[in-house]
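Folding problem:
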Amino acid sequence: MIPKSIKSSGDLVTSHEATRSGFLEQALRKTKKATPYIVQAHRLLDKLKKVGVLNELVGLDDIRDELIAAAGFSDKAASRFSSEELKDSLFTILKDIEKENGDKWREEILFRFLLTRGDSLGGAMRNITGAIAQEKFAGAILAALKARAVNPDVERSSNNPDKIQQIVWPDRVCFFDKTPKFISKNIDVILLGGCDTSNEALSEQENYLACGELKGGIDPAGADEHWKTAGSALQRIRDCFPQNPPKLFFAGAAIEESMAKEIFTQLKSGRLAHVANLTVPEQLSDLAAWLVAL
């Protein structure tokens, strides 16, 4: 079945206006996400100005994390070292910075701190990109249920109230970001029959009604790679269901012409049961309405 809002592959292609709007949304979120790092940088600079000699820095516990970042250690890398090992490594690196930069070691430490935190911000933004896609999709599911006068139970993450983990309505459970044991890989969206939200329910293949991949990245340069990753994930699901596979769908924000043709071909052949461009509200609504009607 071809969705009513998609007449040809061209309908799936992301418009210039949608790309521009998507970049703006990400920039605004990145600006907000960067604020704590900027505050840290100002605080670090104030402390550095009050230090007479570089050796004193190693004993300043209140800016220890900032100095570790300036030394090039990510949070993950720092967790591999003991406190004493970090102190020794930090001293060695700071002395090297002083040797290379002379009296300008304070500015160099600040710049290096910003470089490391900038890398952390990039990783956080990649997570946010996925979160944006999930927010849009979950919102469409809730709107579709409301249109059917269904009041679902929504479970959100305790660590992040904005992240929806599952939506439950009569005889249906929609999971987000789950890793079934028989696949051992994350699936963005899983729709199960029944109301069992346990891991056991996820292990029973006969419960599966639909599975889907969401790709929220808006950059056209990465569109084809996102589609290849999604295609591999969907093929894994097919391989795990030799009989009666669930219906598969794909929704992406950045869809270029070449991949749109491939997606549309899979849609026509039935290899994909449904597709949508996340930047086109009508297509997203169609996808959500189809899913809740299964």
